[in-house]
């Protein structure tokens, strides 16, 4: 099968298209014919090995010392179940699914094996494979931090970095939960954020949201580029600040995908997609995502 393999840590040039052996599912695994995947900021960090010095050794142990232990990167996927292990009961051949592979990676390929108990769900019929591939990472991250911040209906929430993969998911989910949503992004992305459900949008290049907005019950930094100290004046008296930076990894839960299925089936949620690339252009896609200016998600069409 065709796959993109990461031959070393470094620039997008370390990624190359190769012929590799097609995997076979173990007893509790399903074999998925991949139709689409994505390039996330996390994929770029895994490829380039960008991490704080404090985490250098533990991350090398996890990912591999001289190059990625799992050479096929990619954590989001959508596709069709081709076959299942003999102990699998949750899925069957022909099921259209989507989800996250997590630290198993493996989605930059024509086929991948995923555990039956993993973060995976049957794709809603009204959602394309490309759209489905761009749901799980942003949505599960946003839901994790909303639970952490105890976001509820009627509350005021500000999402800093509202135009990225996590931010665009967070705006839509917060609005669906009944919160009053304010977004912070660059000038070029204000229209997008507004269209996703934000009642107010600040342009961080021209405005100080902390000085002219709020108070907010919850401030969610979806890109790890602000701080509680910088947001303190905009927080309500008992308000909460949460961030993707320095507050632990988001818990990826299958039940979150069940919740997202309900939103997608009702037409309430649709992932924002910036660009689409074929599988052999994953290096170019990594280069674009690495620039840090993408709007929502970058999708890789595999099939």
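-> sequence recovered:
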């Amino acid at each position: 099968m065709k796959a993109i393999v990461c031959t070393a840590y470094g620039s997008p040039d370390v990624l190359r298209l190769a012929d590799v052996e097609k995997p076979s599912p173990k007893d509790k695994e399903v074999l998925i014919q991949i139709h689409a995947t994505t390039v996330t900021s996390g994929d770029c960090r895994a490829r380039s090995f960008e991490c704080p010095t404090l985490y250098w050794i533990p991350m090398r142990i996890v990912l591999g010392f001289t190059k990625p232990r799992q050479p096929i990167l990619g954590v989001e996927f959508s596709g069709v179940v081709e076959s299942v292990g003999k102990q699998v009961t949750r899925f069957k051949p022909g099921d259209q699914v989507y989800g996250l592979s997590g630290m198993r990676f493996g989605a930059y390929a024509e086929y991948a094996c995923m555990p039956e108990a993993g973060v995976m769900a049957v794709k809603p019929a009204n959602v394309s494979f490309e759209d489905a591939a761009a749901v799980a990472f942003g949505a599960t991250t946003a839901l994790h931090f909303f639970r952490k911040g105890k976001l509820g209906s009627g509350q005021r929430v500000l999402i800093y970095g509202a135009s990225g993969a996590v931010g665009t998911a967070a705006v839509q989910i917060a609005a669906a939960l009944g919160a009053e949503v304010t977004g912070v992004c660059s000038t070029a992305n204000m229209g997008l954020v507004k269209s996703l459900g934000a009642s107010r949008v600040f342009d961080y290049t021209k405005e100080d949201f902390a000085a002219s907005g709020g108070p907010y019950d919850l401030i969610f930094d979806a890109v790890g580029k602000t701080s509680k100290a910088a947001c303190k004046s905009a927080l309500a008296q008992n308000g909460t600040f949460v961030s993707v930076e320095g507050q632990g990894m988001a818990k990826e839960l299958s039940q979150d995908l069940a919740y997202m299925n309900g939103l997608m089936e009702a037409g309430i949620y649709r992932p924002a997609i910036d660009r689409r690339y074929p599988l052999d252009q994953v290096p170019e896609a990594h280069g674009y995502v690495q620039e840090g200016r993408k709007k929502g998600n970058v999708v890789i069409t595999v099939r």
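The radius of gyration is 19 Å.
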